[in-house]
Amino acid sequence: MGFFGNQFSNVVEWQEYSDDVIFWKWNNDEIKKGSKLIIRQGQDAIFMYNGKVEGIFKDEGSFDIESQIIPFLSTLKGFKFGFNSGIRAEVLFINTKEFTIKWGTKNAINIPAEGLPGGMPIRAFGTFNCKVDDYLTLIEKIAGVKKQYVVDDIKERVVAMLDQLIMKWIAKEGKDMFNLQANSFDISNGVKTDLDMEMLKIGITITGFNIESFSYPDTVRKMQEQAASESMMGNVNKHMQMQMAEGMANGNAGGNMANTVAGMQMGMMMGQQAVNMMNGNANQQVNMAGQQAADAGTAGTEKPKFCPNCGTPTNGANFCANCGKKL
């Protein structure tokens, strides 16, 4: 008798448990007399008979099915195991953990933008969190026809809806097209609300939704970097002053920064002085050359002290007083 008891008994358990599996269905031929149900941490077990839920068990541990499970099943509470008969039932194991899943838009989302007939192509990336919320709905919509349901199945369903939802919440509030990251919190909350409503239809709730980054086309990204660079160059003096003030407030390290900035300013002043000196020397040389040329011109036209014709003193006159020669 002991031999047959061991032969017919079996263990109902989710032995090959995996973190990326949302539910797994045990559907052996039948549950034998002497069988045990093992529920591990992070699992719930649902007994199903003829497609109908008979009982949901959430306490972890090992349970004798005949004495500890059968009495709590709705239509099988009076079932008696025979010598060679068992229950043709299914047991659905639910993973009760919260899942964190990475997502990314499959294609660029064309967000309507002024001046761009086709819209601005934007990609987005992030994570979302979900868990099983309604067992009966999950069984009706999914588990009734599937042996298991995995994270990739959830991800595929979510990503299929994201393009339209993200576009909706960017356009709804008139968000700044070039500063979407600053508005990612509001956009994420809107997407989460809509996404949760859709996923509850299959018994899954969305507990969190996060947009980590928005990605623009390379041409737009380069234009943004150039504009940021030009803006920084236009405010370099303000930046240096802020660095010096911060450095002075931070002690020795700040003093080094202040010395560095001061050195840069002194170098700029010395360079300017050198340029001024060079300009001054050049101007002085030009003035000296001009004076020499003027002196040379004056020397070449000086009147003689004696008339070259008759030798009479000229006394600075333009004509000789004796012979009348032009001097």
Short description:
The protein has 327 residues and is of the alpha+beta class. The chain has helices at residues 2-8, 65-69, 135-143, 151-172, 184-199, 218-234, 236-249, 252-300; strands at residues 11-12, 21-26, 36-39, 43-49, 52-57, 61-64, 90-95, 99-104, 109-113, 116-132, 148-150, 204-215. 43% of the residues lie in helices and 24% in strands.
Polypeptide structure, described:
With 327 residues, the chain is of the alpha+beta class. Among the domains are: 89 residues; 120 residues, Tetrahydropterin Synthase, Chain A. It has 8 helices and 12 strands. The strands form 3 sheets. It has a 5-stranded antiparallel sheet with strand order 5-4-7-2-11. A hairpin with a 2-residue loop joins strand 9 and strand 10. Helix 4 packs across helix 5 and helix 7 crosses helix 8. The N and C termini lie far apart (161 Å). 18% of the residues are buried.
CATH architecture identity of the domain at 99-218:
2-Layer Sandwich
* CATH third-level topology of the domain at 99-218: Tetrahydropterin Synthase, Chain A
Task: Please estimate the helix content.
Answer: 40-55%
The CATH class label of the domain at 99-218 is Alpha Beta
Q: Count the DSSP helices.
A: 8
Structural descriptors:
rod-shaped; alpha+beta; Tetrahydropterin Synthase, Chain A; four-stranded antiparallel β-sheet; disordered N terminus; 12 strands; five-stranded antiparallel β-sheet; 327 residues; 43% helix
List the helices and strands and how they pair.
Blueprint: H1 2-8, E1 11-12, E2 21-26, E3 36-39, E4 43-49, E5 52-57, E6 61-64, H2 65-69, E7 90-95, E8 99-104, E9 109-113, E10 116-132, H3 135-143, E11 148-150, H4 151-172, H5 184-199, E12 204-215, H6 218-234, H7 236-249, H8 252-300
Parallel strand pairs: 1-3
Antiparallel strand pairs: 2-7, 2-11, 3-6, 4-5, 4-7, 8-10, 9-10, 10-12
Helix pairs in contact: 4-5, 7-8
